[in-house]
Design goal:
The chain is of the alpha/beta class. 49% of the residues lie in helices and 20% in strands.
Length: 243
C-alpha cells in the first residue's frame, strides 16, 4: 500500500513558486544561486550532451559559423562550456544568450569576459511574451520547461521553433523519486545557496515525465522529435523541422 501511494505521488506534477522566479529576489542571492546551478550543470555533464548535438548540426552546415541561441540562459554557464568545447574542437560557432533577468544577463556577460568568450553576446528577452527577433541554426535551453504550465510550454516552444532553422534542443529534469533525492543531495553538497536548496527539489516535483513531453512537444510544434534520457535523471528533447 505504501509503495502504491509513493508511485501515485509521482504520477502528477506538483508546481509551486520557485525563489529564482521571483523578480524581487535580491541580486546577491540571485548571483549565488546562478553559481550553484553552474556547479550542478558541470556535474550533470549537460554541456557534453548538448555539444554532441551541436557538432552534428555543424557537419550539416559546414560552410559558415553555426549560429546558436541559448534561451533563458541564466548565468550562461552551459553556453560558455559549449563555446569552450567548440574552440578546442576547432569549430566555428556564434553563441548568443537571452534571458528576461537583468541580473542573470549581467552575470552572463561578466562570465563570458572572464572565460575569454567576449564574442558571445546577450540580450534581454521574455520568450513567453514575444517571438525571437532573428533566426538561428540551433535554439536550445536547459532547466526551463519545468517552470511553466502546459499552455506556457506550448507558447515558448512555438516561439523557439519559429527561430530555429535546424534544431531545437530542450534539456530538463525528469520527475521521479530518484531525481528528487538526487536533487536534495546534490543541491546541498555542491552549493550553499538557500535558493538552490529550495528550488532544486521543487523543480523535480514540477518536472514533466518523458511521456508527457512526448505528447506535449509535438502538440506545440509538429516536428520530428527524439527523446534521450541521461545522467542524472534528465532528458534531452531534440526537435527537427520536417523536410
Amino acid at each position: 500500500m505504501q509503495a502504491e501511494r509513493t508511485a501515485t505521488a509521482w504520477q502528477k506534477r506538483r508546481r509551486q513558486p520557485e525563489r529564482m522566479d521571483d523578480p524581487r529576489l535580491p541580486a546577491p542571492l540571485h548571483r549565488q544561486a546562478l553559481r550553484g546551478l553552474a556547479r550542478l550543470n558541470r556535474v550533470s555533464g549537460i554541456a557534453r550532451v548538448l555539444f554532441r548535438e551541436l557538432r552534428q548540426v555543424a557537419r550539416e552546415v559546414p560552410d559558415r559559423p553555426l549560429r546558436i541561441l541559448d534561451v533563458a540562459c541564466g548565468g550562461a554557464d552551459v553556453l560558455l562550456a559549449c563555446a569552450r568545447r567548440a574552440v578546442r574542437a576547432g569549430l566555428r560557432f556564434q553563441f548568443t544568450g537571452c534571458d528576461r533577468s537583468p541580473t542573470a544577463l549581467e552575470a552572463a556577460s561578466e562570465a563570458a569576459h572572464r572565460h575569454g568568450c567576449s564574442d558571445c553576446r546577450f540580450f534581454c528577452h521574455d520568450i513567453l511574451a514575444e517571438e525571437l527577433p532573428e533566426s538561428y541554426d540551433v535554439v536550445m535551453n536547459t532547466l526551463f520547461l519545468h517552470h511553466l504550465d502546459e499552455e506556457e510550454v506550448v507558447t515558448a516552444v512555438r516561439h523557439m521553433a519559429a527561430a530555429a532553422t535546424q534544431r531545437l534542443l530542450i534539456d530538463d529534469l525528469l520527475r521521479s523519486r530518484l531525481g528528487y533525492w538526487l536533487a536534495q543531495l546534490a543541491c546541498r553538497a555542491l552549493t550553499r545557496s538557500p535558493v538552490v536548496h529550495f528550488d532544486g527539489p521543487v523543480s523535480v516535483q514540477a518536472a514533466f515525465s518523458e511521456q508527457e513531453l512526448a505528447t506535449l512537444l509535438p502538440k506545440a510544434v509538429p516536428w520530428s522529435w527524439q527523446f534521450c534520457r541521461h545522467w542524472p535523471q534528465r532528458i534531452l528533447c531534440v526537435g527537427r523541422p520536417q523536410s
